[in-house]
Design goal:
Length: about 260
Amino acid sequence: MTTATPSSPLVTRHDHDGYVTLVLSNPARRNALSAAMMSALQDAFDDIAQNPDIRCVILAADGPVFCAGHDLKEMGGITDCDQHASLFAQCSRLMMRIVTLPQPVIARVRGMATAAGCQLVASCDLAVAARSAKFATPGVNIGLFCSTPMVALSRNIARKHAMRMLLTGDPVPADTAFAMGLVSDVVDDDDLETATDDLAAGIAARSGMTVRLGKQAFYKQIEMPLPDAYAYASDVMTTNMQKHDAREGIGAFVEKRHPTWRHE
């Protein structure tokens, strides 16, 4: 276990074949989303967005807690309204960066993910949770309703499930989070890293162009009325059909061979 110090990064990066793992690396502070931690994550995602050779991202954490949300000590030391507004705006930009990132992001969750940490999981495209993991939006217990985590949470799970989490602050075990739709996979603790790496490698093995196009289309259409969504999705498929990888993939299927992607 490593503890972030002024000379060690808050976020560490590990490059693999076609995908990257970003690790929250401040377990002494329970990987809290301080302003510095959010800046480090934002910079890492902005850098990844510019690299088409990276086709998937895993977001993981050091230590027994995935992410405890905002750094309450930091927040409690702020009295100026504008500084609080700036902190929450920074958090919102980070969450939106994950959604707008060209590459899919998979949360690899071990331990607790609470408040903005739960928001971080909900903002990722996929989430693989260890069976012992738990999720909570406990702001109500300290007089601070989890309003910004609510945005991501309510876009992942049914309203009454979201409201129960928000109104009670009770922790939700991984199996329940899976049933609610907050996480995509639950695996035994010992299998967490392997399962997440396999998932990321599988996505990275697909056409990067197709995955980028599909992720963007998913988030755009889901907010549209049904007729508009179909019209937009039809346009996307038309564009997709003109790409090299679509022609290559269809040709490979017909010819019963493996496709050779150019990611374009």
